[in-house]
Design a protein that fits this description.
Largest sheet: 7 strands, mixed
Order of helices and strands: HEEEEEEEEEEEEEEEEEEE
Mean pLDDT: 92
Number of domains: 1
Strand content: 25-35%
Oligomer: single chain
Number of helices: 1
Structural class: alpha/beta
Strand order of the largest sheet: 2-5-10-13-15-16-19
């Protein structure tokens, strides 16, 4: 017999609400979400161009993170797709600007402003964001398995 942990009522309700929120983002808003993504209900996924946001499998977006795929501030409308790879974690209140591509296994620190694209297996942070560590490996449950080497 399998040794499974019983979920509390609160955990069951939270799981159901997360599934409902993912359904809303995929089917109604048109966001390209991978499998097993956890998007906070308080995260802001581009409201003007949600179809331009692409998030890979097993990624997590924390509360009040902002992912945008458009820009009106440069005198004309700019629509650029924003890509977030597999097994990525976007920390709370981080901002991902339009046209950015984050590789797989990228951890974005809370409050970071990502102004350029980054390769696979790194931890980034700051304003503007820069690589802090390389060789980072993130599990399916978005936990850091290998912390990598500091730059």
């Amino acid at each position: 017999m399998e040794n499974r942990q019983k979920l509390s009522v609160r955990q069951k309700v939270s799981k159901y609400l997360n599934l409902l929120h993912s359904f809303y983002l995929r089917k109604i808003r048109g966001v390209d979400l991978g499998k097993n993504c956890q998007i906070s209900r308080r995260a802001i996924i581009d409201r003007a161009h949600p179809k331009g946001v692409h998030i890979g499998d097993n990624s997590r977006v924390a509360l009040e993170a902002l992912i945008i795929a458009h820009d009106y501030s440069r005198g004309k409308q700019m629509w650029k797709d924003t890509y977030i790879g597999h097994h990525c974690v976007i920390g709370g209140r981080a901002i991902i600007l339009p046209g950015i591509t984050l590789g797989n296994h990228v951890y974005v620190a809370a409050g970071s402003v990502v102004t350029k694209s980054f390769p696979d297996h790194c931890l980034i942070g700051g304003n503007p964001a820069k690589i802090i560590k390389t060789g980072v490996v993130i599990s399916d449950k978005t936990q850091i398995l290998e912390s990598g080497q500091r730059i």
